[in-house]
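Figure 6 in text form: structure in, sequence out.
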């Protein structure tokens, strides 16, 4: 087995669900409001991972139009049984306030590449669903239950919002849950219990949960029972995994799943982040920032003679240290040679991508159809890929002829509507085509725009414009050039670290990490087109 270098999936890859099928390992991760939903990576050596499937690609599986930021697809759970892959997921439709709306669904496929079935509705009682396949062929749906009554007198939010773990049998013949809903587990002393998974070994049902919240107190806990309905006994040395209170290079460790290797060891997936200390206190009181968001990690655990896994101390988690040099990696995207959008890219919320972009409208180019405003929750023409390292750059070439100040297109470093830097072309009131910067990194919920170069620099019409951004840790620089010309910097040094999980509203409200890509808006409603011939992303 190859040495593990964490994070194994770099950049935004949270809530990793690991599934072993023979010699093949699969990890499914959350995608939140980014479409298509769920990313599944494959490996045989646990070091080299390839994106092989995005299962939720149709309206009958997933429609997130109108979902707020950091909602959408939470915590998929991948399993294999009866010759099928089974994928359980939530489409979260409300985040703020006491309530959460969390419809849970199931899709299946005979192969990891698909075809994946239409989504089968399961329940709505809470998020983080998973499916356990017992030895006798019965199947059980688990999820945490969300308790909106936590602000009643005598209760303690946020802990009491997490009401424990529910279980109900699932009948695939009827394609619905059946029988009694049972609460099989409440919480450990850590609390905020979520992300339930069951595995079975030597007659014990082991219940894995995440606790402590998805911030710096995050942890993985284990419990077990001889009876699937409980009662469940807590691991005597919980938490099994955490970096809370440590100075380890990865933090926020939690939300994992276990794959038994059959040799007395197991692989345990977990989410994590690589934060940096900024000295700047954010809205939630945190001075650290995780610009890549929550990433996916992996660790090998040993089963003890008593049947429990041996907990792993924070210092023993394998990590590729931030100080280690990352070999430069260049990815070129030639849209003229592509017959579909490269898999590195996603868009936001909509199951109707033909309304947002096309590779055939203008042959040889990726065409974006200007739609609603940047940060819009319904129909936004923005195509982007994950930022995966602290040092990176992105370039693209664009043709765009605005006819109104409400028409814009360009290169964007994007988290959500409250955190982005946007180098865009528009038009001023005198009809002059201008290159400007729009930025917002603070001020939720109003999210006021800053214009670091005012109305911007005049650029000629009828010429291709090349746009670029360079990010070196916190420092973010935009640049541009005309066809055949030299690169010219534009604007001041901007902050990339504030476009992070801990920026804006803070770590318990932002879940998606930073994306870099291309966008177009037409607030007049005329769908003015912007064409992009190519793009390049460089790590390191």
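Output sequence:
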């Amino acid at each position: 087995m190859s040495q593990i270098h964490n994070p194994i999936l770099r950049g935004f890859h949270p809530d990793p669900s690991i599934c072993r099928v023979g010699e093949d390992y699969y990890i499914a991760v959350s995608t939140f409001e980014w479409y298509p939903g769920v990313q599944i990576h494959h490996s045989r050596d646990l070091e080299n991972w390839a994106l092989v499937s995005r299962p939720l690609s149709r309206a009958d599986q997933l429609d997130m139009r109108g979902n707020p930021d950091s909602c959408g697809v939470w915590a998929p759970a991948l399993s294999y049984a009866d010759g099928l892959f089974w994928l359980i997921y939530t489409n979260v439709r409300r985040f703020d306030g006491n309530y959460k709306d969390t419809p849970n669904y199931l899709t299946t496929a005979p192969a990891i590449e698909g075809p994946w079935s239409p989504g089968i509705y399961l329940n709505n009682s809470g998020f983080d669903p998973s499916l356990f396949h017992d030895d006798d062929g019965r199947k059980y749906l688990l999820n945490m239950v969300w308790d909106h009554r936590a602000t009643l007198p005598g209760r303690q939010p946020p802990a009491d919002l997490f009401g424990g773990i529910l279980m109900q049998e699932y009948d695939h013949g009827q394609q619905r849950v059946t029988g009694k809903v049972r609460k099989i587990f409440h919480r450990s002393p850590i609390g905020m219990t979520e992300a339930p998974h069951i595995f079975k070994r030597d007659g014990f049902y082991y219940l894995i949960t995440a606790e402590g919240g998805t911030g710096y107190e995050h942890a993985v806990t284990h419990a077990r029972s001889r009876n699937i309905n409980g009662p469940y006994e807590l691991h005597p040395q919980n938490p099994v995994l955490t970096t809370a209170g440590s100075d380890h290079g990865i933090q926020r460790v939690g939300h994992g799943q276990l794959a038994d290797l059959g040799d007395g060891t197991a692989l345990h997936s977990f989410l994590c982040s690589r934060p940096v200390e900024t000295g700047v206190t954010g809205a939630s009181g945190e001075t650290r920032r995780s610009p890549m968001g929550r990433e996916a990690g992996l660790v090998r655990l040993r089963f003890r003679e008593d049947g429990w896994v041996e907990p792993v101390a924070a210092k023993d988690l394998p990590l590729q240290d931030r100080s280690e040099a990352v070999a430069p990696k260049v990815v070129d995207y030639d849209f003229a040679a592509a017959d579909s959008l490269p898999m590195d890219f996603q868009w936001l919320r909509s199951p109707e991508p033909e309304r947002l972009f096309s590779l055939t409208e203008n042959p040889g180019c990726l065409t974006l159809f200007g739609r609603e405003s940047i940060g819009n929750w319904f129909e936004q023409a923005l195509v982007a890929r994950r930022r995966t390292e602290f040092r990176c750059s992105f370039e693209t070439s664009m043709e765009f002829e605005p006819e109104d100040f409400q028409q814009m297109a360009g290169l964007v470093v994007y988290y959500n509507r409250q955190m982005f830097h946007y180098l865009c072309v528009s038009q001023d009131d005198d009809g002059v085509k201008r290159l400007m910067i729009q930025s917002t990194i603070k001020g939720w919920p109003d999210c006021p725009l800053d214009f670091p170069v005012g109305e911007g620099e005049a650029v000629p019409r009828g010429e291709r414009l090349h746009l670029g951004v360079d990010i070196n840790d916190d420092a973010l620089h935009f640049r541009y050039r005309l066809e055949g010309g030299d690169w010219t910097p534009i604007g001041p040094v901007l902050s990339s670290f504030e476009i992070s999980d801990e920026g804006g509203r803070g770590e318990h409200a932002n879940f998606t990490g930073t994306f870099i890509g291309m966008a177009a808006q037409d607030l007049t409603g005329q769908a003015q087109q912007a064409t992009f011939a190519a793009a390049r992303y460089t790590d390191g």
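Caption detail: The first strand starts at residue 17 and ends at 21.
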